Amino acid sequence: MKPATSVSAAVIALLVFGGAALAEMPSEIGEGEGQVDIVAWPGYIERGETDKNYDWVSEFEKATGCKVNVKTAATSDEMVTLMNQGGFDLVTASGDASLRLVAGKKVQPVNIDLVPSWKTVDDRLKDAPWHTVDGVHYGVPFQWGPNVLAYNTEVFKEAPTSWAVVFEEQTLPDGKSNKGRVQAYDGPIYVADAAVYLMKTKPELGIKNPYELNPEQYAAVMDLLEAQRALIGRYWHDAMVQVDDFKNEGVVASSSWPFQVNLLQSEKKPVASTVPEEGATGWADTTMMHANAKHPNCAYMWLEHSLNPKLQGDLASWFGSVPSVPAACKGNELLTDEGCATNGFDNFEKIWFWRTPTAKCEVEGACVPYSKWAKDYIAILGQ
Q1: N or C end of the chain: smaller count of CB under 10 Å?
Q2: Is the separation of the CB atoms in 20 and 105 below 8 Å?
Q3: Residue 313 · residue 339 · CB < 8 Å
Q4: In this predicted structure, what is the pLDDT of residue 24?
Q5: pLDDT tens across 132-188, in order?
Q6: How many whole angstroms separate alpha carbon 99 and alpha carbon 132?
Q7: Rounded mean pLDDT of the chain?
Q8: N-term to C-term CA, the chain
Q9: Could you give the CA distance from residue 366 to residue 167 in angstroms, rounded to a whole number?
Q10: pLDDT score of 19 more than 80
Q11: Cα 308 from Cα 154, distance rounded (Å)
């Protein structure tokens, strides 16, 4: 009989083969190494320090003996940089980072047989292209959701119906200009948000996919973003800084995550969110394992824990996201039985999930790659 391959042995094989795909995926999990190091989005790994009701780390640590260490990252580019530098076991990667990590051989295939709760994952996510390559899974779905338009309810008595409030100079319902009172995300992937807006407002451009832009379409998107620069009070990437900006710096509308909106509402601030008529980009995040993970046994234990229905429901309540495990949508006191619908469970097909643009695209032939997005958007931010 062929002996089982432990996680540690498989990692050794990975190292021997210089970071290529695993020579042989592990078939069992060994004893925990005492810790697991995770790169995560803010609010994704909570131990009750902000709110004692939200803690999905303490119980895991007690049950496994694996101490959870978290490094938060504010953008996908930062996540890719940290994973390239090494020293981490797991990352909660969005679609605009995940395939870059696969292509760069920084993450390893995951043996889903070692993640028993895989069978409970939403069927819409199991084979999603942002973590599945040639039928091989490079991670475990975690959470997903839309990028929302957050707005001040004292300024907007009714929810804005269009992203125009952050893209076009205009007088807002309070009689004042939006100039200097709106924000935009400072990651290059925000180019796709502008493309989503132009898909509906300038249909003559023929944009069919915001991540597949030919040179003419891309030029129009860049023109919009350059004009937007004059309106922006601050480009945001730190969720907590944006929360403070809504409270103290006069920001009244911005692209945002449900996480910030939830925090502001918990403090009784006049903030709400909406998905405007043009639609929205969004994120479907996958927990992926570093190719050279030093604590692979604890990492596999966390992958299984990450699909626990209570964790999934609690996190969805905390972040304003949608669980990757549909069973989490019922019976969770924090999320409530209406929470998944409120957070967009039925809007999956309407969201343009983040992914890394490449020069090769299905619809437009030759497209503008992400490297160009990054260079040009950084130039706009620097104006």
Answers
A1: N
A2: yes
A3: yes
A4: 65
A5: 999 999 999 999 999 999 999 999 999 999 999 999 999 999 999 999 999 999 999
A6: 9
A7: 92
A8: 65
A9: 27
A10: no
A11: 39
* pLDDT reported for residue 265: 94
Residue 218 corresponds to which amino acid?
Y
**pTM of the model as a whole:** 0.86
As a whole number of Å, the CA-based R_g of the chain is 21
CB neighbours of residue 57 within 10 Å: 21
Decide if 117 contacts 134 (C-beta within 8 A): no
Task: Report helix, strand or coil for 294.
Answer: coil
Q: Pairing mode, if any, of strands 35-40 and 90-93?
A: parallel
pLDDT above 60: residue 4 = no
Cβ contact 141:126 at 8 Å:
yes
Query: What does the buried/exposed string (b/e) look like for 159-179 if buried means 16 or more CB atoms within 10 Å of the residue's CB?
Result: ebeebbbbbeeeebeeeeebe
Percent helix, strand, coil in the chain (nearest 5)?
A: 40, 20, 40
The residue type found at 270 is P
Q: DSSP label at 347? A: G
How far is the CA of 147 from the CAs of 4, 23, 133, 204, 251, in angstroms?
43, 38, 25, 25, 17
193: Cβ contacts below 8 Å, ≥ 6 apart: 147, 163, 184, 185, 210, 255, 280, 281
> 48: left (phi > 0), else alpha (psi -120 to 50), else beta?
left
Angle at 311 between CA 285 and CA 287, to 5 degrees: 25
In whole angstroms, give the CA distance from residue 368 to residue 346: 31
Contacts 24+ apart (CB under 8 A), 166-170: 166/228, 166/231, 166/253, 166/254, 166/255, 167/194, 167/197, 167/224, 167/227, 167/228, 167/231, 169/230, 169/231
Q: What is the pLDDT of residue 363?
A: 64
Q: What is the Cα–Cα distance from 88 to 36, expressed in whole angstroms?
A: 8
Q: How far is CA 293 from CA 113, 138, 288, 335, in A?
A: 19, 14, 10, 33
Write down the H helix ranges in the chain: 7-16, 58-64, 76-85, 95-103, 123-126, 164-167, 191-201, 215-228, 239-248, 258-266, 296-305, 309-319, 339-343, 370-381
Biggest alpha carbon–alpha carbon distance for the chain = 78
